[in-house]
Amino acid sequence: MATYRCWPAEVFRQPIEENQKIMGLWQRIKRMFRAGTGAALDKIENPELVLQQTIRDMRDRVPELNNSVAQVMATERLLLKNKENLETQVVDLDSKIKASVKMGRDDIATAYIGQLQQAQIDLERTAAQVELAQSASANALKARDNYVLNMKKKTSEAMQLISAAKQAKLQEQLAQTMEGFNIGDDASTFNEMREKIERRVAAAEAKLQLGSSSVDSQMADIEREAMDIQLQDKLLSYKQQMGLLGAGSSNDAGKQIGAGSGAPATEEEILEQVIETEANEAKS
What is the pLDDT of residues 143-161, one digit of tens each? Predict the structure, then answer.
């Protein structure tokens, strides 16, 4: 008697659960990959370039539509030409049948009648095809015109969107610039540098003031004044040696030098004194 072994349900459940875990993990990996790819595409995708490419694609399709419409219209023209030929053939066969009957050639007339019947059947079929071709041509032209109008409308909308995208980009750049000013880093830097420069200027002015009011500076002024007096005495001595100055003029010059010893005389003042002395001597 055959015996059957019963396997526990857990033996079959465990592989199924493992497969479900693997499938769930794989779905998560695919979802994560799609999410990462979508985020990367969103980051690198430029709406302006996408719209420009869409406009180019729509314009490139116009020649294809024109070729399709031209083929439909060519089929219509061929059917019309075939219909005209069949109409001419029907008229010609009718004339031949009448001529054969007049000549008493019933056999020939019968053959022409068979050809006429076939030509009439072909004419009816061609006429129906011509109607369908004319309708197809009209629909093709209408579809082409609708596509061109829709393309112009979409192109106008795309150009507006491109302009809006450029404006938005400029506004973003301006906002970033203004945000940089609002942070205050540059302003604080300017303030710090201004304070440092003002401190240096104040220190330099103080040093200059101290240097001009020092004892060394005063002594230098006294030395310059003494040197001017010596130069005036030397000039006066040369004038006396050369006989250019009289006794009275020398006293006057000495008085002028003594009177001006309180303040240093410039070269212009000395020259004026010499000219005045020579003028007085010339008058005497």
Answer: 888 988 888 888 888 888 8
The alpha carbon of 128 is separated from its chain's Cα centroid by a whole number of angstroms, namely 59
| Each residue's pLDDT tens digit, 210-232 | 665 555 666 677 777 878 888 88
Give residues with Cβ within 8 angstroms of 71, minimum separation 6. none
Question: Which tokens go with 104?
Answer: 């008493």
C-alpha pair distances (Å), 7 with each of 11, 13, 19: 7, 11, 20
- For position 262, what pLDDT does the model report? 45
Sign, CA dihedral 86-91-94-95, equals negative
Structure-token pair, residue 161: 């969107």
CA distance 126 to 82: 7
Report the SS3 class of residue 105: coil
Give the chain's domain count: 2
List the alpha helices (DSSP H) in the chain.
9-44, 47-103, 106-183, 185-212, 215-241, 247-259, 267-283
The answer for residues whose C-beta is within 8 angstroms of residue 273's C-beta and 6 or more apart is 253, 256
Q: What is the pLDDT of residues 168-211, one digit of tens each?
A: 777 777 777 766 655 555 566 777 778 888 888 888 877 777 66
Q: How far apart are CA 116 and CA 86, in angstroms?
A: 10
Taking a C-beta distance cutoff of 8 angstroms, is the pair 250, 225 a contact?
no
Q: Are residues 170 and 224 in the same domain?
A: no
CATH code at position 144 = 1.10.287
DSSP secondary structure letter of residue 3: -
